Amino acid sequence: MPEIMDKLIENPLAEVAGIFNSSEKDAKLALDAVLLYFRNKLEFSSNDFQKIPSLNEANHNGLPNGSLVRFRGMIQDIYDPEYFMPSYRNESDIVPSMFRDPDEKELGFFAEHDNRSLMERSTWHCIALPGENTWVTENYSKTAGTHYGVPAKRSRSDEMEVEAQEPNASRPWCFPVDSNQISCIVKVYNAGDEARLNEMVDLVGILSHVTDHGEPADGPGSDEFKFKNPSTSQVPRIHAVFCKKLYHDNPLLGRHINIESSIQRRRALDEAQMNRQELLSVFKKLFYGDEHCAEYLLMFLISRVYLRHDVLALGKFSLNLRNIAQDQARAIAEVLALLVTKSHAIPLSLEYLNSAKFVPNKDYELNRLQSGLLQLSPGTILICDENALNAGQLNDDGIRNLKALGNMIQNQCLEYNFGFQAVEFQTDTPVLYLSQGKSMVNCDFYSTMPAPTRPKEDMAQVVEEIKQQLSDDVLTRLRRYITVLKWEDHQLSDEMQQKVQDDFVKLRSLHKSMTADDLHSLLVVARYVSLLEGEMELTPECWEHAKNLEKERHSRGRM
């Protein structure tokens, strides 16, 4: 079996040709059979999957043309569908031309072929996951595929030295966060209706090195063609034979969280109370001992939009922590980067708001989507630090940026600028908003940290102490715990539903201003309180704790 996979990695097109011949040279049957073959081969076999060289870690120019590669990333743009010739007749036979780029000789045969046999495929522009934290990249690199002795990518410091020569240096508008990241052009043969902009995907495909034959002649559409067909020595091109949507990108769990990782998942739930206490002890250090802020930060970490109903995004948990100093904000961002898979911190200074590009926009001249800061894959934590805000006036761009951020926080959706109209895209970006006082934008939850009762500590030293506390084994356990709980379902029994209704009636009689929105917020808190305890159903104890947390939070609003 290992030899079979090795041969498949080296020459997948031989398998494509074999399937084509066994399908009686019927291109449609052959294409479907090829995709089915690779799906059966790769979907549930981590060992075979991990043998394939990864473009996230390996230098694509060191990999052979026509070899099997994989890529983990986000769909940043979906180009218009294109037509291709799946097969053609050469001097002696009908041969397949799918899952690869034709060479110059084949183009002559194409010109003589019947155009009625053309088929359609999609083209995606995929980028490495924006905001992916270092520990994730390092863990994935351990299983990057060592089939070839290919050179690894340069280190971050090496990249900075040759930034002007970076393949993507001329394509910064493709990246919302870091223009030093890799991107690739992906030809997709079975996209269907499943592909969505900004989704995380795991791709396996056939690498295509195309010889440059000079610039195409200038004319209508030539600039678009050059942009969408960059040199493969700069931007790798792959023909996808297998594509799977990713729900999480934690390398410490299997790709199939409920199958390969069932033991780890069960362990994370069994150890939930211990993990919760460990994280609370870490976060309390960031808040000078305040457990209330620590609890809300912990709930924030496992939040996600688990259901949409009309315009409501259920489960969202944007959090505004107040009375947070600038050094605290930096420390919080640094510690969260050790625990979650993706996060990005931005300083909300006047200059930044007025100059940054938050919202993606459509460039009709090149027919491409220019990225913006808020074009992030689901689950990416965005940390906004309002401490950087200085006196001055927002310009038109600053106002639009702040409005877009506020809309995403409130509704978990973002309006992309398509020139004549705004097109709304759903998001799932948990926002942690850190400020001294009341924030410029409204969040779902807020909590004010009380003034410290002891002298403030050097936050840089606090972070070092936390790093000492979090050994590799502890970090592994906590990272799994956070991801597992984020994707757990939560139930409300009939008995607890009645209990919630009765308590809500009592609370409204005591607090006339209490609304249905307050009940919704309380239920969201109860959901995450239960999950953090490893409880898949709301218990009376977790319900009482949730009510106490919300009561304390509202009392702090008057501080």
Automatic annotation (TrEMBL):
InterPro entries membership: MCM_complex-bd
One Pfam family cited in the UniProt record for this chain: MCM_bind
GO molecular function: chromatin binding
Compartments, as annotated in UniProt: Nucleus
Annotated Gene Ontology cellular component terms: nucleus
Coiled coil: none
Family: Belongs to the MCMBP family.
Protein name, as recorded: Mini-chromosome maintenance complex-binding protein
Organism: Galendromus occidentalis (western predatory mite)
Lineage, broadest ranks: Eukaryota, Metazoa, Ecdysozoa, Arthropoda, Chelicerata
Gene: LOC100905106
